[in-house]
Amino acid sequence: MTDSGPNPLANASSYSDNERYFISAGKQISFQPIPTSIYRLAQTTESLKTKGTLWQLNPSASDDPSTTGNTFDIISNLPLFAARYDNPLVSGNDSKTIYWEFEVTSLGYSGTPAGFAFGFVVKDAGSEAIASNSSGSLRPYDQTAAPKSLSGPSLLWNSVDGGVYDNGTKIPDTEFQAKVGDTVGLGITFQFDSSIPMIPTRDVNDNPNAKAGRFSKSLDSKGNKTTRIADVKDLVSVPTKIFVTINGEEMKIEGDVARTFISGVTDVFPVLAVSGPGIGGKVKIGEAVTFGGEGGLADAQLAAKGNSAHAGYKKSRFSKVFKIPGGGSWFGGVGMGSGGG
Question: From what superkingdom does this record's organism come (predicted)?
Fold first, then answer.
């Protein structure tokens, strides 16, 4: 496949109460169908007992030459960062961390090229066409020497060299090697910047019967639970940091390396890319992860209990109610209004 130039990024979306709950808690997140029969994502007994999201990546039992020269990438149905709600200049929180893991159980067959990359992607205008294509997202192996997703700009950890790739360009000094039996994690922290004005928002009523209502940010004048949402046109970039974990040990990566496309103005989705046959592992999101740091297990457990104030981020000094002249109030610089998503 030949690139015809970058596609525009997809706009950040609004989500229902239930979807916001799954996004915050990392629960019941699924992936696109894998476009080759040599692989499948399956639920196991362990998966069914896990409160978060756990998928087992199973390869065929043999070295299938038909897939040796191909690779695929699949993205999740819901993002882990929903920009219209999670941007710190919308929520008024000090930061928001998203994170997920892949436990390696197989790295291919002897003598056959294979590897995988996983991390985050921002959908572009071509991603839906790829998902609906009968051939899926398979493409030649030689185009993935520098791993990148066909669904849009991506930030990926690569099993072949342990490097972290910012849309196909390796970030200097990132060689975090892992082997079979290791668990690798990748996270992004979106940071509050007090030098940037708060983003204008409006409040939308939560469905009082939805479990997601526990994540409400405020109450309107009638006592209805509400969630703050920003319009796409008002979203602005915030500083970002990324990190990798190997078996729970965190490796910091210096610099705002994710600013080019992962900056707080777009929704950010988990993505998994596999090259060649014989890759196996466990996809872990939310309470299924093992890392207890920001965006990991501890935060996922709090989020699942409805404690969004401490789930991956903290309240900034702006997240309090200010009285304004002429009546009314502003919550963290956010107007108390009404309206739909």
Answer: Eukaryota
